[in-house]
Amino acid sequence: MSRYVFKVPDLGEGTVASEIVAWRVKVGEVVAEDAPLVEMSTEKAVVEVPAPVGGRIVALNGEPGDTVAVGSDLVVFETEAAGEPAGAPGALPAAALPAAALPAAAPALAARAAAPARAARSEPPAAAAGRIMASPATRRRAREAGISLATVAGSGPGGRIERGDLDLALAGVARPPATPAAAAGRVARTGTEEIKVIGVRRVIATRMAEAKRTIPHFSYVEEVDVTELERLRVYLNARQAAGTPGFTYLPFLVAALARVLESFPQCNAHYDTERNVVIRHHGVHAGIATQTPDGLKVPVVRHVESLSLRALAAEIRRVSDAAKTGRATRAELGGSTITVTSLGKLGGIASTPVINSPEVAIIGVNKAVDRPVVVAGSIAVRRMMNLSSSFDHRFVDGFDAAAMIQALKERLENPATIFIDE
């Protein structure tokens, strides 16, 4: 009988350790070669690791949330057991236990099975408000024992206190009395739930905390009249072929941002903390903050400056969909030079976005709404939208940050300028 020890693989990009997100197998289970084995997380993405061989799982080293070094033992397979039927999920086969231990374990198993029933009896059911319902015999027993029936929760119809309820109270397993809310059919909820912070959520938490701790944020909010941009957007969408996704504001904003950054290169940069160097990028690689079932991810649209509006819109959709469905590669989730974040219709009035380190700027898009504004001395209904942005104040002065957003505002309010050179 041979065993195969599978070690933590190198998941690329110089990874020295990975976090266990979720096991896809259990000890005692028989798996086929290339079957999903475990989900491992790096700083960039969650990767599903397949089984290198077929066989029975003998040992799993590590729990979800544990960080394990590349090259350390991860899974032990019993390869000659591959043809045997799998046992119950998550349990070793009965043959693995000493025969003498099985009868001895039966009372303990029975006790564990009875525990939920006892616990269920200790839960406070709904009871009628006001008068305590109990039989004369129950009242007499409670009186003789010196127990107030107001402290005993009844399990009978309408909250009636039964003999067994009083027996539990006499044994010191008293239930709290029913509340008026419970009597009305609403039961008070108790208890807590612990959720382990692992995987992408842990990475998000770590990076957000690090960004706020090390980067002095300077935030700037500006309102933009997007009435003309809305007209252009509606016009272009009307000319789209049937079934083609329409334009949102995002590709217009990202295209305008690429033009503006030519005059504000200090905002299209990374700060290398180890070398204490600011790296200004010539190309614009826009990070598109995307909410996914696993948390916030930032897929990247590369070389925005070289894309047409239609190609840009298609690429934004592609990388966002890939992030939402877990198909984005590590390369697609890294390398942005500036990030755009938008909550769409939930965008609110203003926000204070957190910089996506090592970048030095982030642009937040709030929702667009029609509201009355003063135009040339008269009140008119215009479509207005706020831009909420944050900058690393160590490398972007307040004046430059405001000037950059003002330049972006001018492009968006005069959308023809997004597509012409000046």
List the helices and strands and how they pair.
Blueprint: E1 3-7, E2 17-23, E3 30-31, E4 36-41, E5 46-50, E6 55-60, E7 67-69, E8 73-78, H1 101-121, H2 136-145, H3 163-170, H4 180-183, H5 199-214, E9 217-225, H6 227-238, H7 249-260, E10 269-272, E11 277-280, E12 286-292, E13 295-297, E14 300-301, H8 309-324, E15 338-342, E16 361-375, E17 378-392, H9 398-413
Parallel strand pairs: 12-15, 15-16
Antiparallel strand pairs: 1-8, 2-4, 2-7, 3-6, 4-5, 6-8, 9-17, 10-11, 12-13, 12-14, 16-17
Helix pairs in contact: 7-8, 7-9
Write up what this structure looks like.
The protein has 3 domains: 3-88, RNA polymerase II/Efflux pump adaptor protein, barrel-sandwich hybrid domain (OB fold (Dihydrolipoamide Acetyltransferase, E2P)), CATH 2.40.50.100; 125-183, E3-binding domain (Dihydrolipoamide Transferase, Irregular); 199-418, 2-Layer Sandwich (Chloramphenicol Acetyltransferase). Mean pLDDT is 83; it is low at 81-129. Helix 7 (249-260) packs across helix 8 (309-324) and helix 7 (249-260) crosses helix 9 (398-413). 27% of the residues lie in helices and 25% in strands. It has 9 helices and 17 strands. The protein has 422 residues and is α+β, with helices and mostly antiparallel strands. The protein has helices spanning 101-121, 136-145, 163-170, 180-183, 199-214, 227-238, 249-260, 309-324, 398-413, and strands at residues 3-7, 17-23, 30-31, 36-41, 46-50, 55-60, 67-69, 73-78, 217-225, 269-272, 277-280, 286-292, 295-297, 300-301, 338-342, 361-375, 378-392. The protein starts with a strand and ends in a 9-residue tail after the last helix. The strands form 4 sheets. Strands 9, 12, 13, 14, 15, 16 and 17 form a 7-stranded mixed β-sheet that branches. Strands 1-8-6-3 form a 4-stranded antiparallel β-sheet, with no helix packed on it. A 4-stranded antiparallel β-sheet has the order 5-4-2-7, with no helix packed on it. Strand 10 (269-272) and strand 11 form a beta hairpin. It is extended, with a radius of gyration of 31 Å.
